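Case study B.
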Amino acid sequence: MIQDRINEKSPWQDITEGNKIFEAATSKEFCTGEWRTFTPVFHEEKCKQCLLCVPVCPDSSIPVKDCKRGEFDYDHCKGCGICAKVCPFDAITMREGK
Amino acid sequence: MAIRERLSGNEAVAYAIKQINPDVMPAFPITPSTEIPQYVANYIANGEIDTEFIHVESEHSAMSATLGASAAGARALTATSSCGMALMWEELYVAASDRLPIVLALVNRALTGPININADHSDSMGARDSGWIQIYAESNQEVYDNFLQAFPIAEHKDVMLPVMICQDGFITSHGVENILLVEDDKVKEFVGEYEPEHYLLHPTEKMAVGPYAVSNYYMETKRAQRQAMLNAKQVILDMAAKFEQMTGRKYGFFEEYRMEDAEYAIVIIGSAAGTCKAAIEEIRATTGKKVGLLKIRVFRPFPEEEIAQALSHVKAVAIMDRSEMFAGSCGPLGAEVRAALFQAKSQAEVVNYFYGLGGRDITVQDFMQVYDNLENIANTHVVTGMYDYIGLRER
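Model:
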């Protein structure tokens, strides 16, 4: 984990030159979900698994396995609400707060 | 044996680029630096070097492409002046923050407002806070010599910062002077191959350049960047010593001219130093008055302790600025040298003059007047204010 080496407690001497990062896909470790002020709620019983919500998610926060979507990835969902807007079956609603 | 030639400042820089044969040069033309990419393009077209020249659509793109090339692992450079540099503004800061060892051949010209194409330091002085190393030249010889030292300084592992090699528009860029060129093989050996430790095109290493840094990281990043600038001081001196071994020409943070016994000193940057030296010789020959000159070569990093030390024995100092900063007070050089003298508890009287803005000539007579003023100030201890002008028409 890159955050084991450089984190919010690192002294300036430990910062890499120019903040360069020598790993790939480190955004997975950066939990941007805490920015959320609205939270999507998944109502599985109403979901027809049409998967219209999946490609419109800007943060790839709707995981799909075996052609079926699962629970939101709340570590990275920023609560933009596009998925709720696009869902034809009211299977996603937005709730205020994290 | 060194090669004797007659070259303009622009030709001298282009010749240095030819000798270095860098990997990538994106550039966009602007007076008075246009000739530099033009000459380099000729060298490439004639098959003399294999630099990749990128014809970009603006200076914003020129510096962006230079950043990209440098991050990819190439030795990259560009050239510009004045408003061209202003259009690079955003990328100047990125180059320094991303620690990319780019070299910029800057031909100093006044920033527009009113439009003007002549020598003035407002372009580079405006960029003094961008994190670039800045090295200035008095003559064509100096700009050539500085350019040869630029990449070794920029690429040093303790530095990894971009370097701006500055010369005065038209005065040196288009003025032809005798010059001593270093042989190609010696240049190649001095500058060396660029072998970056990390670069984007590395076949096995994963790497991201320029990530977002939230407030939890930004301040530490800036402190680390400052360290690179602090480290640059020793590296600049080391490269100057190595260069002196090769050529016999001596460089440092500044040149001290007749300063050993000087009572009245001028601090100045760039080509006007030559005129000042003529005034010093005239004054010393005719009156015996002890006048001297401190010509700043390295403005970033700013060698404040060394400057204060060099001025420690003088009675009065005139700091000469070739750019406005509209503080309503000092110019940029005036403010920083004054601060250095204050910190060193200097007792010297200090006056700051604006001169030569937008390419206005400054003469030997003007400098003789400045030394007269200094003598008067030293005797009366009356300084009229934080700033004054030389060569300004006034009612």
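The radius of gyration of chain B is 21 Å. The remaining cases will be described in the next quarterly update.
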